[in-house]
């Protein structure tokens, strides 16, 4: 043990050391005190996150609406995605600076962006495999909220036909451009302009959706999920993600309409008991479910795998 007195450091020197990653890494490796503090903070964070899920009360979330209100809520969401699709389509899909309009224009970035969609499809394949789910050669997959086709181009390799539904004309225009550029001939798009259009989509054997329902207020999420699962073919498979709660999430239609945004998307939750009730009411059963990070770190988000009975 070295008994020499500690050197006196000015507060500027302490600050400089605290911001030096190499010094901090060495200090962490040497200091059981610091390691214990970090472990405690991490475990407090995880505990409070999990507890907030247990404490979440879905009765604070308004889900039932009349038709006129449903249409009004839908037009709010349509306006947000009209704006996002027209101004920053790729960033609206994956909101990190790397995919901003300025950055995605750099050589090679667009291809890199589209490669990220492989992850979602691999998750889907993995979940299907562990539940012994397979698909016939004529399978039609409906992707709810295909955006700019980031995942669609990879789904098109699995299925005979993929239809990408989306609310945003700008995002769909990018998707169509990409299908042409990559010669993806079995993927098509369809813009949804009113809730009623969700009720007459025709036959499909697979429903795929990630990072879409969560951007809609609970009544819209419930309406879409209900109608899509109803139209899923017998024996068909639904793979979808949404946020089911967390934190202090509450939803009241009147306050939402009084202060909704027009230029940016929103994050909403559909309580777990409502999701499960819709699965049952539409003649589906739950095959599997896992918690995911599609909605960020401070919410409860789940991916569901269901089969139409
Ligand atoms: C965050 S992006 C994700 C796109 C795509 N799923 C992906 O992972 O690349 C959400 C997409 O869902 C679309 N969307 C949001 N609400 C929708 C709704 N009610 N009906 C159809 N599309 C919707 C948006 O226009 C947007 O393109």
SSE layout and pairings?
Blueprint: H1 11-18, H2 21-30, H3 32-55, H4 67-87, H5 89-93, H6 101-104, H7 109-115, H8 117-130, E1 140-144, H9 152-155, E2 161-166, H10 169-181, E3 187-191, E4 204-209, H11 218-231, E5 232-245, H12 253-259, H13 272-281, E6 284-292, E7 300-308
Parallel strand pairs: 1-2, 1-4, 2-3, 4-5
Antiparallel strand pairs: 5-7, 6-7
Bound molecules: S-adenosylmethionine.
The site of S-adenosylmethionine has 21 residues, from α4, β2 and α11.
Distance between the ends: 71 Å
* Structural class by sheet pairing and helices: alpha/beta
What is the alpha-carbon Rg in Å? 23 Å
Tell me the name of the CATH class of the largest domain.
Answer: Alpha Beta
Strand content: 15-25%
Write down the overall geometry: globular
Tally of helical runs? 13
Question: What's the quick description here?
Answer:
The chain is an alpha/beta fold and 309 residues long. It has helices at residues 11-18, 21-30, 32-55, 67-87, 89-93, 101-104, 109-115, 117-130, 152-155, 169-181, 218-231, 253-259, 272-281, and strands at 140-144, 161-166, 187-191, 204-209, 232-245, 284-292, 300-308.
